[in-house]
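Quick illustration, no need to memorize.
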Amino acid sequence: VSALLGNILNPDEFELSKTATAAKYDHDIAMVVDRSASMAWDLTGTDFSYPAEYNNDSTLQNYFKPPHPTESRWAKLVEALQVFRQVIEDRELNAQVGLVSYASNYSFGLFASTRVSRDQLLSPNTSDFITAAEAISAQPIIGDANIGAGIDNGRSVLLSASERRMTANRTMVLLSDGRRTEGNDPVARARRAANNRITVHTVSFGDGADQQVMADIAAEAGGYHYHASTAAQLRTAFQTIAEQLPAILVQ
């Protein structure tokens, strides 16, 4: 660039430069999802209403069946998880993803559910958490909802010394289609996660979901809350969360 007073000052030219540093984010992500009995219901919003194919059986029989493979709330959740995976793959995020599911300790005859399970620890193979979700699809999903236990176990997965990466962003994606029916206050559990630098995004699904509590959880842990009334809105919520994960830091 020519200097204005080049004939008086020395030198008569100068160069402009700016240095930027770019770094790619690592992401450790725990998907924490509701597998209580209501996730086997259909999307009408009516309690104990099952997909039409199950109409010939009693409510009790349907309660102990695996969720309908295409029309249950659980099936729509698996579709949304697949959308989430596709986005992080398309964006080439350096992500490890795990899966935690929560319900309650409940047994009836030969059937039982556990309060919470770590279905997939953090894995760089992002198809692993989808496979784990599909495995749940093959079994009856029963019991109530302990959201706090889900958050606590998602936190444990993200802090696992054997899988976590010290440089990674820690993110939890929490889904519920209902209300807390047992366990500790989930907002307080989210505060504990936030103290470990874990961002919690929440998705409430269906008219029976406690939207206020899910919004409070997200606010407590620096995340966003999304509500979905339909399967399409559920897919959009998971897509949006995946699209908003930061990819590159530029300084």
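The chain has a mean pLDDT of 92.
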